[in-house]
What does this fold into?
Amino acid sequence: MGNIFLDTLKGKSRERPPVWYMRQAGRVLPSYCSLKAKHSFWEMMRNPELAAKVTMLPVNDLDVDGAILFSDILVIPHALGMGLEFTDAGPVFELSLKKQAPPYTASLKSQPEKLNYIYDVIRETVRIKPADIPLIGFCGGPLTVLCYMIEGLGTRTDFPEVPKFIYKNKREVAKLVDLITELSLTYMEGQINNGIDIFQLFETHAGLVPAEIYFELFMPAVEKLGKYAKEKNIPFIYFPKGLGTGIERITPDICDFISIDWQMPLPDARKLVHPEIGLQGNLDPRVLFAGKEEINFALDKLYEFGQKEYRWIFNLGHGFLPDTPYENARYITNWVKTTNWNRR
Ligand code: CP3
It folds into this structure.
């Protein structure tokens, strides 16, 4: 038997689902918070020893089955030349696209060498991690990255200007998506060449525009990324949060697994999603603020699903929220790992 995470991604039936969490590296871990008191986020990200250490914290503290690279989706706009700062109130760009005039691509220039430090982090992580823990690499989906580039700051996540910008500037948006995608492909190649085992695309704001617009302007870019991962034999997980019933139009050449958000029950997602594509998700991260009874109720529902569905990775329906009680995160991992899933 191989590794439980990679086996599941390959469609092999295992005794339980593998478990990891989106945003597992920050936010919930007391060990992360104490490091954060001493170093800024940029500082931790750019120091290979520190970043590799943070990447491994959830494996040690939460006992998850996979490690996710400690970095951020906004490294792409930064490597396109946008000034970026991570403040206490979230990320802020020096000059957002909405404050500029067309052609919006004029101020951007692809500088792939700005991503090199991340490859050092990956190599250091591979050096220190146990061989049976796969390393997940990632980048942001084209729409999500564009949202931050247009709006310029990160604490507001409703992005009121973005749909208007897209409708007004469709041709320009297509060019921006191309720029983001080309650099994301180079970045993905770098991550793969330096040792990641799995790739996840975080399209957190897929639900911001109607599905038709998403499929027209952004899905071709996702398909390019997915096909490249397939060529390189790297399992590709796609998280299109808020895409709703649009998930039924995703084909197996785009991705191997879809990460389902908490808005859609997994049995419904299973009916919609192409049978060759596996599922990941989708515990509501807010349930972790509830008492044990309510947590157990949510877990029971996932148990029903996971008993029959072995092409499934246990995860949240979106990342951990700040201040999530750490004990509850531990409790859930332990539950996934010690439950008898009664699979045959
Ligand atoms: O999963 C992990 O913990 C690994 C690393 C990771 C981070 N960001 C670290 C981070 C990952 C996978 C991301 C993805 C990311 N970043 C997304 C997509 C997933 C999602 O949650 O929707 C988005 C939209 C971003 C953009 C971003 N980066 C925001 C909005 C913020 C500020 C708010 C916050 O705390 O998330 C960041 C900063 C950031 N990225 C931090 C961390 C640990 C916080 C830095 C700090 O501790 O001050």
The chain has a mean pLDDT of 96. The pocket of coproporphyrinogen III is lined by residues 22-26, 36, 41, 68, 70-74, 86, 90-91, 138, 144, 154, 202, 204, 319 (CB under 6 Å). The CA atoms of residues 26 and 136 lie 15 Å apart. The first helix runs from residue 4 to 9.
